[in-house]
Amino acid sequence: MLCPLFLWYNIEILYTMMSINFLVKKNKLLPIMLTVILFVSGVFLFQKNVNSADSDAIAMRVFPNPNHQSALTWYQAQNFSGSPQSIQVDGYEAVRDGHSVYVNVANLADTDGDGNPETLYTNIYLITYNQDADNETEDIFGNILENWKFNSNIIGSGFCINEGAKHCLYDDECSIGDHCNSLKSRVIRDTKRLSDLAALNVSLGKYYSNNNSYPALGAGTYLPGKSLSVWPSWSSTLSSVLGSSVSVDPINKIGPCGAGYAEDTCWNDVLKTFATTLPNIPANSLMYGYYSYGGGTTYDLCANFETPYTVSPPLAFFSGCVQACIDMDGDGYGLSGSTLCPQPLADCNDTPSPGIGPSVHPGATETCGDGIDQDCVGGDLACASICVDNDGDGYDNCDGPILGDTLPIDCNDIPVLGFDINPGETEICDAIDNNCLGGIDENCDVDNDNYCDCGQTFVDGTFLSTCTNTDNTDASTRGTSCDCEDGVGNAGINPGATEICDGINNNCSGIPPIDEGCDADGDDYCACSLVPASVFGMNISGTCSNTDTMSTLANMYSTCDCADAVGINPWHPGIAEPDCFDGLDGDCDGNPDVSDPDCGVCVPTTTQSCGVSNVGECSFGLQTCDAFGAWGICLGEVTAIPENCTDTLDNDCDGTVNNGCIVTCTFPFTFPCTF
Fold first, then answer.
1. What Rg value do the Cα atoms of the chain yield, rounded?
2. How far apart are CA 467 and CA 454, in angstroms?
3. 20 to 30 A Cα–Cα from 384, which one of 157, 241, 297, 554?
4. Predicted TM-score of the model (pTM)
5. How far does CA 286 lie from the centroid of its chain?
6. pLDDT higher at 19 or 462
């Protein structure tokens, strides 16, 4: 039998009756008395007196852990001299040193008094027993350790992510490589994330002390200054720079990246691009990130936490981090409930298993009697004993599998109002769940760009909650504001998009035109501003055949039009610079005006000094740039002549007067001279 011994700090210890009685030997209860004492210092003492002669004690103490250190790091910071061994207690990381165990645990606190916890902080829990304790005390200690439970204010189990119907509380209850999404497991993993980031922050601080900067990561990683724990650079480059190993996220997986990107890194090795603009990360990403700024002047350490709690004290190095929605089943509802997700309400089953997680969320149609809480209201719906079809649409309020009905249950059986709402209806865009699938206006905006699919059926004047950018006043207003290409991966195609040169009607302006504005001057070269990297590999010869988007990315940018506008048709790659004095780059080679090899070397009427020397009797001349950009002759230059030994001038302009001259000595003598 298990009995709760005490509740304090959201912890619970369950004692077996065997432990309460401190073991039965030879069918005789030992005369042992148990006392529990709570000290102001936070120490629990379990004292056992055997025959009032021997005395053993088991004590517990709670220490603040404001730096969110792991149990091992905290132990080492106390300068203890033992040999701690890593263990787990109730799923949390812990260390044991002889008769003492230290556990790093998260506590959830209700700081605003609404009955729900909002804040997460960490403590170190110590439980220990005295030296030279007898075997009974050691057995009791082991039993306490085995039944020590934290977070007694966390209620409920979860599901194994890859086994949607399998309930779990801890990760080790799921298959290898899988994990549990219970709140308890998520809190445990977030606690590990805090201690990992805290340890890495210390390593970065040591690096700064030695180098007066943080790791700049200028090379050896996909993007300069950045590394993710799912990238090779995390365990190679960053680890090597710091001189120590760096931990990875407990899950360490990146979310869906999109077509063209490696699924384990979200890196496109052809275009050399990442799926998002960091520090923004793909949804469902559970990984660490290091972002260096200013060449190592500052940095951010990031993790995508699985729980919504505010960390106290906050992480000082976390200010620039961006959290992402965690919605494993893709139904728009995150497990914790978050405004980061399309739907802010919390999902009660976020496993991606088909037919389980995606069909379970707030607002879903409840199927009675199947043991599943589809609408997340706290339990399954009991089936009605009598089937009734109140609205006469052929679908009743009974669940088919339970009462033998061959049709699924009607989600709106209200007379008259519910006639056109049942599982047999086709979903239309009217802000109503017409087909009873649990969603509203599904398929109206498949690519989630907030524009409704033009091919759907609409009810004039109805507010379209799933695609508010489409004006649903009538057919006319919808025609200019609906999505002409609504499908997975087409979020960049809608009436609000910018038309680019890719052979696609990006802004839904009608067919034709396609790629309008790409070649405004009609020279068959596409404007560089409308040829982003995403166009590479698309055949746009029908729009501007002279722009090469098929061979290499570099060639695409060297064959696009840098000056594409009405009236400047002659300007495009491959021509000679048309005007060397207008300050523009007419041939798109990156060299405007006189810097272009096609042009002259100077600007007409400008002047410059010319000549060889300006020393002694020599002086520079002046030359003027002619109308063709060439320098004219040098005028007014005074050049060097042989030295005149009869004067006192530097005729040869070498800086010395009468050098090399021989003078005959005459009275009065002026030396040097020759007799």
1. 40
2. 11
3. 157
4. 0.56
5. 9
6. 462
